[in-house]
Amino acid sequence: MASVTLMQNTHRKATAPNDHGTKDPLSKTEALSLDRRGLANAVLHSVGEAVYEWDVLADRMIWSDGAADLLCIPDPALLKVNRHFNSLLLPQSTTTRDSTLAQAARSVDPNGTPFCIQYGLSGETLGTGSDIWIEEQGRWFGDETGQPIHAHGVVRLINERRQSEERLHHLSRFDPLTGLFNRSHLNACLEQVFKNQKQSGKNACFMVVGLEHFDLINSVYGYDAGDEVITEIAKRLNENLRDNDIVGRFSGAKIGIILPECNEHDMLVAGYRVLNLLRENVIVTAKGPIAISVSVGGVCMPQQARTSREVFVAAQQALLESRRARDAAIVVYQYDAEKARRQLHDAQTAERIVTALKQGHIHLAFQPIVDAKTNEVAFHEALLRLHTPDGMRMDAGDFVSIAQRLGLIRLVDYHALDLAIDVLRRAPKARFSLNVSNETACDPEWLSKLASAIYANPSIPGRLIVEITESHAAESLDEARRFITSIRDLGLEVALDDFGAGFTSFRNLKELSFDIIKVDGQFMDNVAQSRENQSFIKALVGLSHLFDAKVVVEWVEDEASSALLRDWNVDYLQGYWLGKPSRDLPWPAEAEA
User: Fold this and answer.
1) Which terminus of the chain has fewer Cβ atoms in its 10 Å neighbourhood, N or C?
2) If DSSP states are collapsed to H, E and C, what string results for 343-372?
3) What is the pLDDT of residues 257-283, one digit of tens each?
4) CA pseudo-torsion sign 525, 531, 533, 537
């Protein structure tokens, strides 16, 4: 093997024995070759690499200079024989040169067959105290039958890479704060539980433990204290559950627990043990002791869930119900066909809303509001409609409440404001009211968007009325007062919608200043015979006029009702009898500039 000569001792003197036993000076070419080999060995050592030649049949190995020092091998003789070298390997290093050649297909490729392996040398055997990890690349060569006869290769130290890979592998499975499994690995563990169930037929359960008021803990005590709380919860759970229970961090303030070989009764017992474990003793942090409250939601497998996704969804629904129920800290998920139907309907509606927003299929329809005395149109209300090219139509009542529940209402409100601004720009005589949801009424960006539109088109004040619901005013008087003040500062009027539907109506009317009050349509039900509804409307009209507010009554459906309302000094009437909502603009639109 000619290449073996490249790795002979390069530190010999520049002389060579002659036929008489004496030494003659080496030629310049030979000396230069030795210098180059010395340089090559020095470079290899400096970059953490060494090369070798291996006579497979004789099991003899020749290495480049410094290989033993590089690999921290105390006895260089261990490098001369492959099986001796293998005695240094870590037990988990199952891939070796021998196994690679044994598993390789026979080959007579004159250029050799490449291989690449990784293995570790035992730090205990070497006496270094820490293991050494190596990557080896090489080629083996076979005889005419393909039987390996020799090989050569290069080995390099990969300790840093190995440590980095181990860190990444650890992070792929464990939460860095608590040391628990992360959600991804919890998912993998659940998949394994389902596989085991198919073989054993045994039940299992999954619980989500939710820390209550975690945001409050962070804001009052600081995020470091919040981290200490989560870490202590994880520690208590890890130390007090069964050895085969699997605990992981489900999300920020939620811990997931897999309970193998458990039924519903077992899970309830475990759940109450968890509650007692976490509630009995306060958690001591650097910012002081913190008392915590937790809720638990659980699901049985496979009775109520057959995939990890179904498990996660069901457990979170149970946790949500646990938080809502004041007298129940643990709720076990039970399938409800009607609830599942509603959830499916909500999900489908949410998808339709998002698609309609993207494709511009949500429009405004305008319903007239007439003067009760003259029957002339005073202004209109802009109502949302969802129309798709395939013929599907939805009124605001069919999708707005769902958009609110699913957190999509701000997108809808922003789109509605864009449509309203466009109409006000194109139709200078347009005057209408626009509803704003409770969530958006607290959004300063929505107000900024409206203010920018007014700056660009100063004619908008006086033509746009902003409607908020009584429920928003009931939630927070201070918040409602700030919003109304901001709208008035922009020069717009404010209307209170659905008045009478809440429980603090008259107090709100006294505390807040509205330009228009819209009476909820429920009071028009059988108004000709209902003395209660008549009394409410009359009282409201008197109070509203006392506060210089105009009154609109909704759901007016006939002339007799109109006459009654007119006699009670109602200012404006609205209803299908007076005019249905239409997508056609009620005002002339100017040609585009």
Assistant:
1) C
2) HHHHHHHHHHHHHHHHHCCEEEEEEEEEEC
3) 999 999 999 999 999 999 988 887 889
4) positive
| Cα–Cα distance list, 33 to 10, 38, 42, 46, 494 (Å) | 9, 9, 14, 20, 94
- The two three-digit tokens of residue 37, written as one number: 């080999």
Give me the residue label for tokens 């000569």: 5
Least confident among 246-250, 387-391, 393-397, 423-427: 387-391
Choose among 300, 304, 284, 303: nearest CA to 292: 284
Long-range pairs for 365-368 at CB < 8 Å and ≥24 separation? Answer: 365/581, 365/582, 365/583, 366/432, 366/581, 366/582, 366/583, 366/585, 366/586, 367/574, 367/579, 367/580, 367/581, 367/582, 368/574, 368/578, 368/579, 368/586
Q: What angle do CA 589, 400, 468 make, to 5 degrees?
A: 75
**Paired sense of beta strands 148-157 and 132-142, if any:** antiparallel
145 burial type by CB count under 10 A (0-12 exposed, 13-18 middle, 19+ buried): exposed
All residues at 6 or more sequence positions from 32 whose CB lies less than 8 Å from its CB, including other chains: none
What 3 state SS string does 130-159 have?
CCEEEEEEEEEEECCCCCEEEEEEEEEECH
Q: Report the predicted TM-score, pTM, of the whole model to 2 decimal places.
A: 0.55
| Residue partners of 324: CB distance under 8 A and separation at least 6 | none
- Which two structure tokens, joined as six digits, stand for 554? 């909704």
Amino acid at 400: V
